[in-house]
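Worked problem 6 (solution included).
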Amino acid sequence: MYKVAIIEKIHSEGVKLFEEHKDFDYEIIKDTSDINLIKRLPEFDALTLRTTNLFSNILDNCKKIKVISRHGVGTDNVDLTYLKKRNISLLITATANAISVAEHVFSMMLSLSKGIIDFDETVRNGYKKDEISKIDTYELFNKNILIIGFGRTGQSLISRCIGFGMSVKVYDPYVDEYIIRKVGGTKVEDLNEGLKIADFISIHSPLTKDTKNLININNMKIMKKNSILINTARGGIINELDLNQALNQNIIFRAGLDVFEKEPINPDNPLIKNKKVLLSPHAATFTKECTTKMGIQTAQNIIDFYEGKLSDKMKVKL
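Solution. The predicted structure is:
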């Protein structure tokens, strides 16, 4: 019998999978404080994990754990070096997230370029025709979008952009040009060259030491003044103070953020009061379809791991 700790709730369809397999027992851990996790987790063989931080101070007490299954694809809340040292496998819901995130990006692109929030506020305040003409709006057709990071979400986004008649540029040093061209994009070798020509920029890279503050005031200054910057990947890739400055000084046009360097976002973060940025609470994957798929895949990955059926695409290379 394998004991699984479900750290934070997952969809009931995922829990049901453990109930249907006689070799697995599970317990949902609601108290995610370090003190409780250090106390409770040593008895478990496997863990599911959402947004809780799981670092060596907790894992060092968990001698039985062989596998951690992430409810998502990000790995920045897990100590990867420690997992490698302990030979603990890290699994992700590799095929569950892409569509919902790509659609979220598109909803932000349309809302920001079409002035939806501005128009809504204008109507509610009793609009006058001369006020409407002062709101700048743009078409997506024939515009350049730069996709930074070309994993499954970036690849899901490209088809939607092409459907709107956009020209797609891709910056990802780890993806072959042939793969990008095959789906209708053009590879950009230099990030700054891509930023110079982009009307829209959408970020889909992991947060690493190389991508921390990847987008900052220096390269925002080379972007088009009408450019719209969107991040649904990880907070910290865009320098938030620099972004606030760039928006206030009309260096770039608008921004959309689903992720923040600190989550929940600090109430004193100036972006909260900045009307040129559209905010959402790390919710791009919160569609009914995506949360169901992630819950099922999170559980299935653990079952497949122990039954020797795990697909390589679900396993993070440590």
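Discussion: Residues 288-307 form the longest helix (20 residues).
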